Structure prediction request, 188 residues.
Amino acid sequence: MVMMALLALVTYWMVRIAPVFEPPGPARPATHEPDYYMRDFAVRSFDSQGRLQSEVFGVHARHYPDTQTLEIDQIRIRSISDQGRLSTATAQRALTNEDGSEVQLFGDARVVRETARDDAGKTLARIEFQGEFLHAFLKAERLSSDQPVTITRGQDRFTANTLAFDNLDRVVDLRGRVRGTLIPSAQK
Prediction:
């Protein structure tokens, strides 16, 4: 009897000191705090044949898990199309989505498509877009801005309040106060 009482007492004591497991609470919402950083970096991507498709350089980058975005300071992007056309983009700051298909450029934003030849062999003049904000859709080869922009194509120059550019269709839609200067090409 004493032995059973002692066993009951030990069992009672063990139950009292054992930790209580609580069911897991609701998942904490992700905060807008970076989960990783990069400094003085370069990221290169290649196609399935091993050809360079793009390079992204930056001074400082922060990844935000709640929005799945990457914010990059002093960004510089080099992109080479399947046809070998070089385009570059620079800005003081950029915000890119998870798969890198969209890039928003802030502060002294500049996108340049270098002189190239199209599929028919016709020369495509160098074209440069400048503004405080440019939104690039890389896979669709589109560029837009809801803020004033300056476009320089060869020696021609245009300014507008907003921009929508489709590189595949070669269509530029300028809105607002649009001004342009066209320089005639030299005839031989």
Observations:
- The CA atoms of residues 12 and 68 lie 51 Å apart.
- The mean pLDDT is 87.
- The helical segments are 2-17.
